[in-house]
């Protein structure tokens, strides 16, 4: 379902990009997380998503 509003679309895109993934249990964590909320591991990495959508 496409999002018509460009502002909302930008927010949605940023929300998808700004997620930290635990390298141990692969749980999603908020961008402000220092350690995994599930297992407590500090091995978090930014989730990288390639946006192929072109308007
Ligand atoms: Zn974890």
Characterize the structure shown:
This protein is α+β, with helices and mostly antiparallel strands and 55 residues long. It has one domain. The chain is 22% helix and 15% strand. The protein contains 1 helix and 3 strands. A 3-stranded antiparallel sheet has the order 2-1-3, with no helix packed on it. The longest helix has 12 residues, at 6-17. The two termini are 13 Å apart. The chain binds zinc ion. Zinc ion (ZN) binds at residues 22, 24-25, 27, 36, 38-39, 41.
Give the arrangement of secondary structure elements.
Layout (H helix, E strand, L loop, with lengths): L5 H12 L2 E3 L5 E2 L14 E3 L9
Antiparallel strand pairs: 1-2, 1-3
This protein binds zinc ion.
Roughly how many Å is the radius of gyration? 13 Å
Q: How confident is the prediction overall: mean pLDDT?
A: 84
SSE order, one letter for each helix or strand = HEEE
* Strand count: 3
In terms of structural class, how would the helical and strand content be classed?
alpha+beta
Q: How do the strands of the widest beta sheet line up side by side?
A: 2-1-3
Percent of residues in helices: 10-25%
Shape: elongated
Beta-strand percentage range:
5-15%
> Terminal Cα separation, in Å?
13 Å
Contiguous uncertain segments of 5+ residues: none
The count of domains is 1
User: Main sheet, how many strands, which sense, barrel?
Assistant: 3 strands, antiparallel
